[in-house]
Structure formats: C-alpha cells, structure tokens
Amino acid sequence: MRLQMKPNGFMVQPILGSVRRVGIPARNLWCTVTHSLILETATLHWPDEAACSQAARALAAAAPREAVIALEGDLGAGKTTFTRHLLHALGVQGRVKSPTYAILESYDVGWAVSHFDFYRFDDPQEWEDAGFRDVFAQPGLKICEWPQRVQGLIPTPDLALQLRIGADEARHVQAQAHSTTGLQLLKALKSG
Length: 192
Prior knowledge:
With 192 residues, the protein is an alpha/beta fold. Helix content is 26%, strand content 33%. The strands form two sheets. The protein has a seven-stranded mixed beta sheet, covered by helices on one side. Strands 1-2-3-4 form a four-stranded antiparallel beta sheet, with no helix packed on it. The radius of gyration is 18 Å and the shape is globular.
C-alpha cells in the first residue's frame, strides 16, 4: 500500500474504497477515517408501493450494469421491496427472495446482479471466507441492504438511498450520488 505525504506532516494510506489510514509515522500515531464525496442529494417521496415500483423502473431504465447501490433504513422501511421491484424491472423472473440469511443472492439479467443483505453480518472474517471481496471486484450491479454493517469493507456506493417510513406508510427517501455513475442513476431515479 502506498503512503502519501501531506504538507502538514501527515501520511495518508489508502485502504479500501473511501477508507484511509491517516497518521504521523514519526510518532506512530494512526487512525482510520472514512470520507465519501457527495456530488448531489435529492429527497424523494413515495406515497405508496406503486410509487416505489415506478422509481425502481426508472432506475432500471438507466441500465445500472456497473454500480454499487446502498440501501439504508429501519426494518420494514422498504429496502427489500424496492430491490424486488428493481430486480423485476431489470428482467428477473419469478420470486425474488430476501438474502437475509444467505447474505447474497445472485442474478443474471444479461449482466451480473448481486443482492446483499448484511443485516445478520457480524464477523469481518466472514467477508473473506465468503469471497465477498471477489464479488465486489467483478463487473456487475451490487445492491447492498444494511451497508453500515460492512462499512470499510465495501467500496463507497455510487448511489445511497436512506428510506424512512412516513405518515400513512409513505416512504421518504434521501438519495445521495457519490460518483458520476451515481449522478446518472440519481437523475433516472428522480425522473420516476
């Protein structure tokens, strides 16, 4: 891993994605920091599941073949529901099951789609043992529920969606684009 010397005497060592090790080597003082650039933010309102489905179809129309999409929110906020609509819009046929226990479900829609649910993830060694680093290194779309459980292990998402339950079961969605790919996906999502 390469170290970058900053003018103030600090050294920065890239680790993975947006995670950096920062410190003063002469004093052997180090800390790990995570920083992710936000290029654009939007607030969306889905009054019902039909609106969620419409947004998923709009996102699918952007053909996100190479992207990481992170979905955060409380239990029941609609992360898996949104993912099901997105996968069906991408062409997945039949039942789409939540990977809550398996952690990963893979699909082929003409390109690889990997649906992760990290809710039950609690051991970083499991990341290595399961080969998730290899999955993220391969081309394809990665959809990650509960990404905060693996922060520092997955790359910075291109698009991050924070879902919250509002009045009358409506969903309020805070969307953040972290890359040019994320900007394209956010633009498509807003058009839905």
